[in-house]
Specification:
This protein is an alpha+beta fold. The protein has 2 helices and 4 strands.
Length: 98
């Protein structure tokens, strides 16, 4: 099971990607990510107005079936922010806070 986060926008417009394979993470982290993915389809995702130099976040996963593809702004709900943080921290080679 793979989860990917793509961040675009910002002042420089740089695109960054982070991805994790859940079976390669500590069990506690993988369980939390699975739980957040199960909740993700219920997150209210509307067309938030674009914020100048704001980030856009895209969450991609092969679960829940048929998969997850959410586009969120900086005002994403707390569970989405937590999922982004877990994927960013769990990405091999990612520096803290990147």
């Amino acid at each position: 099971m793979r989860v990917e986060v793509v961040r675009s926008g910002g002042f420089a417009g740089r695109v960054q990607r982070w991805a994790v394979e859940l079976d390669e993470l500590p069990a506690e982290t993988a369980t939390e990510i699975r739980s957040l993915l199960d909740e993700a389809p219920a997150w209210a995702v509307g067309d938030a107005p674009a914020v100048p130099d704001g980030f856009r976040w895209r969450l991609l996963s092969d679960v829940p079936a048929p998969g997850l593809d959410l586009d969120l702004g900086d005002d994403a709900p707390e569970p989405a922010q937590r999922l982004v943080d877990l994927v960013r921290v769990g990405t091999p080679g990612a520096a803290p806070g990147t």
